[in-house]
């Protein structure tokens, strides 16, 4: 029997171009198409995958070019017959890939934690080094996101994904199914400002109503200040604005620069009060909670090793924080 040398055969196979029929489109394009088919819209798909809607449109165009067929009706936004057929065929395969990935991650625990920027930067990040030293086997990725946009109940990474968000008291509770959550903390909220800004005021504020005549720094809107004034029984027709700055940690950066007064809590301040970068805007603080920090995840992720360890550690750290405040 003659033995054919293996190396020349491998060389030939390597040099031969792959059969075009079996070239698989990029996974990013397939995920974008599956999210579009599942949610029924480009912007909803973008929200689910946490990408810009332009990226979804680009992936859909590229996929159609690669397949040589139209997957969605440009006039109605619905899937074409070919689109429905293709989605029904690839959806189970993507789910199988997701499950295989989740299974292997259970062997090497991985956890992605999306988190509101202020909580992530000023409270969680300084403590993560200690968590990693205590649990070197857990691969934890911290991803700061805009408030309440980082978590979605579907997607290929939800089996290793947890989210920390701030649920303001006047906000509508989320209605997602198959989601479990636990309240982390309900911190009091109070106004702060830079010492230089306080000294620059002709009349320092003495009570809550005085702040209606002071430069107030707003987030995306004035809802937080309205809630705070209402909690302090202060009537108002409008909230004076020294600028809108989108997120709490940005308003605090502006407050440190002396641009006005911001609302804060202990999870956003870091060591600002201890170092004197910021001071309370009122001599007597009636610190009123306006919302709750919440940890949430899917049912499937909740009891995973990585999230169980992280959740236990997180609640312990919050309890330590509360002890130090009393």
Q: What is the gyration radius calculated from CA atoms? A: 26 Å
Assign the CATH class of the largest domain.
Alpha Beta
Largest sheet: 5 strands, mixed
Number of domains: 2
Taking the alpha carbons of the first and last residues, their distance comes to 86 Å
- Helix percentage: 40-55%
Rounded average pLDDT: 82
Number of helices: 13
CATH structural fold name of the largest domain: D-Maltodextrin-Binding Protein, domain 2
CATH architecture descriptor text of the largest domain: 3-Layer(aba) Sandwich
According to DSSP, the number of beta strands is: 11
Strand content: 15-25%
For the biggest β-sheet, the strand order reads 2-1-3-11-4
Low-confidence stretches: 1-18, 152-157
Shape annotation: globular
Query: Which structural class best describes the helix and strand composition?
Result: alpha/beta
The helix-strand sequence is: HHHHHEHEEEEHEHEHEHHEEEHH
Describe the protein.
The protein is of the alpha/beta class. The N terminus is likely disordered. The protein has a 5-stranded mixed sheet with strand order 2-1-3-11-4. Strands 5, 8, 9 and 10 form a 4-stranded antiparallel sheet that branches. The protein has a two-stranded parallel sheet with strand order 6-7. It folds into 2 domains: 99 residues, Winged helix-like DNA-binding domain superfamily/Winged helix DNA-binding domain (Arc Repressor Mutant, subunit A); 218 residues, D-Maltodextrin-Binding Protein, domain 2 (3-Layer(aba) Sandwich). It is globular, with a radius of gyration of 26 Å. Strand 6, helix 8 and strand 7 form a beta-alpha-beta unit. The protein contains 13 helices and 11 strands.
